[in-house]
Amino acid sequence: MTTIALDAPPEVTRHIGPARTMRHGLALAWRGILKIRKNPEQLADVTLMPIIFLLLFAYVFGGAIGGSIESYLPQLVPGLAVMTVMMASMTVGMNLNTDVSKGVFDRFRSMPIARPAPLIGAVLADLVRYLICMTILLVVATIMGFRFGTGFVPVVAGVGLAMLFGLCFCWVAVWLGMLIRSPGAMQGLLGMLSLPLTFGSNVFASSDTMPSWLKAWVDISPVTQVADTLRGLFVGGPVAGPLLGSFAWMAGILVVFFPLAMRAYRKRLS
Amino acid sequence: MTQAIEAEGLVKHFGQTKALDGVDLTVPTGTVVGVLGPNGAGKTTAVRILATLLRPDAGIAKVCGFDVVRDPVAVRSLIGLTGQYASVDEDLSGRENLVLIGRLLEMSKGDARARAAELLARFELTDAGDRAIKTYSGGMRRRLDLGASLVGRPRVLFLDEPTTGLDPHARNEVWQVVRGLVDDGVTVLLTTQYLEEADQLADRITVIDHGLVAAEGRADELKRKVGGQTLQVRPTAESDLLAVQRILAELTGTAPTTDLDAGMVTVPVDDPVLMSTVVRRLDTAGITADELALRLPSLDEVFLSLTGKSAQQSTVDTQKTGSLT
């Protein structure tokens, strides 16, 4: 029998540079993407909800809220794109939580790979998830009669912005995923977090008819800001103002939750 | 002989719980050391410290000469870890898991694939290689987990309760694999609650209890430490019990104990040669026996006397079983 274990003495690695870190991150992103392919039902989880809302609000409430379906879709669809990305960005918390509780992280940590690599991999794979979810939503919306009123570049910019928003928002999920012990508890909490955020915005209805205290929040809420920007980029209208608001929110979320997430990550893994 | 693992005075407290309270451990290169202890004794904590997953509160640990706290990356490049819980991705196939690990260990795509195929073949998982891990049986999964910890050709392998929850057949499979690795020159540190497992695989055994080393030595040394052998005779006819008792008392000079329910007479002996004398005397007296055995104390009894707790599984370590009919 050939000796397998010792036929080549292992080289001793003592430090891991940034190039290696990135390679490890990419290898783990490949794993994340494989998982999306193997487990499409996990995608369905986050894609289905916005699509159900799309059908429900467009066909049932569309006429009442927006006068007609045709005039309601331009308001609804960009908002739902934000919702989709936000819900998809919650999955990373679930996935990291599962990896930690199942012991997959222990295997990674017992190997000579960079500490942040699993996080980088998870977040990179997340970008692919956002793109898939958003594409599905926009295709269904187009079938229902939604029309992009701008050009190719603004639409791509809009998709990019939504993905960037997801990338910032996912640190909330990473943070919670590292704090909370069981994946089951995670799911409920993340649902509870993302629903009020989407309904407390102008995704479904204009803030004009809301009570003043709610309107005050809805007008400045992150989902409203990003949704308004996407409306401008997808169907036309002002972009600069809401874009500024979006960036402010994204920076704010990142400044607060990225350090929290990193601290919880390091703590959970020490 | 060089030491693959050296640990001195390892201490780790979790709040009020003293998981480790000053544990010394050495594993000579190329040997298997079994760390034995009840649940919560500190076995897993010790492995996690040695595998750089946990920092000790005090004490020093070195793997192949590298300090686990100061040189964790070097240690990680030399070790393989198979945890108590299968730490592979259940959604991916066995092959994908192995390739991923190869890629993380800086192998080229081709090398990682070749290594994965090689390990799948070695662990007889080639046919199941492209199925998701979650469809694997417990034994297959554990074999794959072992394979995963071997992708990087480790010099030191940590097996944290590798057979917990496996049926006897699957356990045997894992044992075979471990023996093969040892033949290849890998140093193994194995934790287990199963005395039989330590007895079967380990060159030396360290018994840990309450975060302290309760005993250390070869299996037979530990057994001898606790007591000598016993001779057991179960006559076919219950009416012969008294006669057997008389013969054994006469031959050993000690009063045997008789268990009427089991129909068994037991007596401690210090001379193994006595066995044949007993056989002759029983034969002369016209007594037939269903069971006639000379046994060392099982590791279970060793464990019990060292830790005051019974192990999960009792093992009967029968050395010779004769039957006279």
UniProtKB/TrEMBL annotation, chain A:
Location, primary (coarse class): membrane
A single GO cellular-component term on record: ATP-binding cassette (ABC) transporter complex
Occurrences of domain ABC transmembrane type-2 (ranges): 41-268
Record-linked PROSITE patterns: ABC_TM2
Mode of membrane association: Multi-pass membrane protein
Pfam families: ABC2_membrane (PF01061)
Name recorded for this polypeptide: Transport permease protein
Organism encoding this protein: Herbihabitans rhizosphaerae
Lineage of source species: Bacteria, Bacillati, Actinomycetota, Actinomycetes, Pseudonocardiales
Automatic annotation (TrEMBL), chain B:
Keyword Cell inner membrane on entry: no
Family annotation (PROSITE patterns): ABC_TRANSPORTER_1 (PS00211), ABC_TRANSPORTER_2 (PS50893)
GO cellular component: plasma membrane
Membrane topology: Peripheral membrane protein
Pfam families: ABC_tran (PF00005), DrrA1-3_C (PF13732)
Name of the featured protein: Oleandomycin transport system ATP-binding protein
Segments forming domain ABC transporter: 5-235
MF term (GO), any: ATP hydrolysis activity
Segment forming the signal sequence: none
InterPro entries listed in its UniProt record: AAA+_ATPase, ABC_transporter-like_ATP-bd, ABC_transporter-like_CS, ABC_transporter_ATP-binding, DrrA, DrrA1/2-like_C, P-loop_NTPase
Compartment(s) where it occurs, according to its Swiss-Prot or TrEMBL record: Cell membrane
